[in-house]
């Protein structure tokens, strides 16, 4: 008997990963995701582990290749959205993304910015990015969208001499520094 949870965790990747791993500890395994839906089936407690990977900067081809690579490695992989958009025909411009991923549409990577990766729990730590260079590249790609938002809030704060935009600039600085 499956169990459904409706949650929106957006860009809180670590929170989402901890929640999924806690569900695994309770004896539930992810079987389906949608915009705000997570569906689980019963399993042995701690049978699987989860990792979340941001792929919003990749082109459709590279995202699909990475998805297939992870599945070929024996992992179960789910696409997940990082935002809530319930309209059809959307286009999103991502200036921080690599060439081929800057325009995201329903046919490419729009609402498929995250990968939830599941592996059998073998008692070893589960990390997708292990080398220093790989982690640096990954965190740089996580930081770039926040830098754009920070820049836009800072310009708005200066042009409008607005305390609200100044506050939003400081709040946006937190994920950039982390």
Describe the structure.
By secondary structure, the chain is of the alpha+beta class. It has 2 domains: 3-127, no CATH class; 129-178. It has 4 helices and 8 strands; from the N terminus they run βαβββαββββαα. The protein is globular, with a radius of gyration of 18 Å.
Overview features:
alpha+beta, 4 helices, 178 residues, 3-stranded antiparallel beta sheet, globular
Helices, strands, pairings?
Elements: E1 3-6, H1 13-25, E2 28-33, E3 37-42, E4 48-54, H2 60-72, E5 76-80, E6 91-93, E7 103-105, E8 114-120, H3 132-160, H4 163-177
Antiparallel strand pairs: 1-3, 2-3, 4-8, 5-8, 6-7
Q: How many H/I helical runs?
A: 4
Number of discrete domains: 2
Query: How widely separated are the two ends?
Result: 40 Å
Helix content: 25-40%
Please state the average pLDDT score: 85
Largest sheet: 3 strands, antiparallel
Strand content: 15-25%
Poorly predicted residue ranges: none
Radius of gyration: 18 Å
In short:
With 178 residues, the chain is of the alpha+beta class.
């Amino acid at each position: 008997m499956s169990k459904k949870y409706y949650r929106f965790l957006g860009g809180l990747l670590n929170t989402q990963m901890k929640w999924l791993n806690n569900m695994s500890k309770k004896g539930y395994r992810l079987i389906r995701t949608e915009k705000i839906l997570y569906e689980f089936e019963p399993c042995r407690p701690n049978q699987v582990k989860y990792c979340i990977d941001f792929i919003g900067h990749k082109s459709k081809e590279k995202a699909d290749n990475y998805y297939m690579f992870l599945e070929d490695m024996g992992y179960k992989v789910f696409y997940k959205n990082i935002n809530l958009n319930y309209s059809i025909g959307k286009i999103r411009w991502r200036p921080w993304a690599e060439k081929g991923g800057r325009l995201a549409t329903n046919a490419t990577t729009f609402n498929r910015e995250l990968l939830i990766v599941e592996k059998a729990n073998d008692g070893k730590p589960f990390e997708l990015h292990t080398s220093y260079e790989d982690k640096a590249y990954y965190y740089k790609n996580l930081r770039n969208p926040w830098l754009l938002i920070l820049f836009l809030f800072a310009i708005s704060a200066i042009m409008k001499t607005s305390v609200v935009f100044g506050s939003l600039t400081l709040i946006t600085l937190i994920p950039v520094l982390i």
